[in-house]
Amino acid sequence: MSFSLNEVEAMAKNAARGGHYSWAMAKEAGRATRWLCAQGQDGCGALAGMLRVQEAEKLLPPSVRGEEWRADTGKLCPLSVGTAASDRAASLTGQVTVVHGVVFPLLLMPFFSSASRVSGQIVFAQVDEAKAKVAADGIRLQGAFPDEASQVIITFGSGNFEPAEKHTRAIPRDEDWLSLKFFAHRTYAPATEESRRLGAGESGGSRN
After folding, report:
1. How far apart are CA 48 and CA 184, in angstroms?
2. 83-113 burial string, b = 16+ CB within 10 Å, else e?
3. Diameter of the chain by CA atoms?
4. 108-163 residue pLDDT tens
5. In this structure, what DSSP letter does residue 145 have?
6. Pairwise CA distance, residues 57 & 103, whole Å
7. DSSP string, 84-129
8. pLDDT tens sequence across 19-52
9. If 0-12 CB within 10 Å is exposed, 13-18 middle and 19+ buried, where does residue 150 land?
């Protein structure tokens, strides 16, 4: 089944919130998932996979020590790494940054696009054996991205870039969409007797 990018973004945002992320970070998750789907990538699958990992073990923000980014213990959250990379784009352009132990690194790519827009340069990422070339207007991938990357090597540079064809709809796997719906359902307020009455068209106040 296919979904519009608006539907994808709304579902991803609610799913991330249901996965215990703040509303601010959930909005980032929604935008990131939408961006990936617009590039023809499996953004829904990446987010669903990340939320399933987050459910089993708490994913962590990066501890930045110069050019090395890692978790003090455990695994890195790609949303936290991505927002940090986007925020620090200007200072990252002159160095090689190595991120250790991040899950579903495909979710980093929308944030690298933002970093490219800020810096005016292309972001090159070596994700274990796979490679990515990310610009403000798109992405080019070479190789299959792992569910967990032992390291992501990030550099900035110049060069020719031809963005891939954009997509206006996404076709996630059924199991991934159901996972997103499962997490999103947690954001729904449980029905009360008053909400049931209002939903049936009854008003709790007087009418003129």
Report:
1. 11
2. bbbbeebeebbeeebebbbbbbbbbbbbbbb
3. 70
4. 999 999 999 999 999 999 999 999 999 999 999 999 999 999 999 999 999 888 87
5. P
6. 11
7. HHHHTHHHHTTS-EEEEEEESGGGGHHHHHHHHHHHTSEEEEEETT
8. 999 999 999 999 999 999 999 999 999 999 999 9
9. exposed
Contact in structure between 98 and 124 (CB atoms under 8 Å): no
Lookup result for tokens 């296919």: 2
pTM greater than 0.85: yes
Tokens representing 174 are 């059924």
- Rounded average pLDDT over 56-68: 93
Q: Where are the beta strands (DSSP E) in the chain?
A: 3-4, 63-65, 68-70, 97-103, 122-127, 130-135, 138-142, 148-157, 169-170
Looking up tokens 């007797």, which residue turns up? 193
CA distance 97 to 69: 7
Report whether 41 contacts 139 (CB < 8 A): yes
* Pick from 200, 29, 160, 164: nearest CA to 107: 29
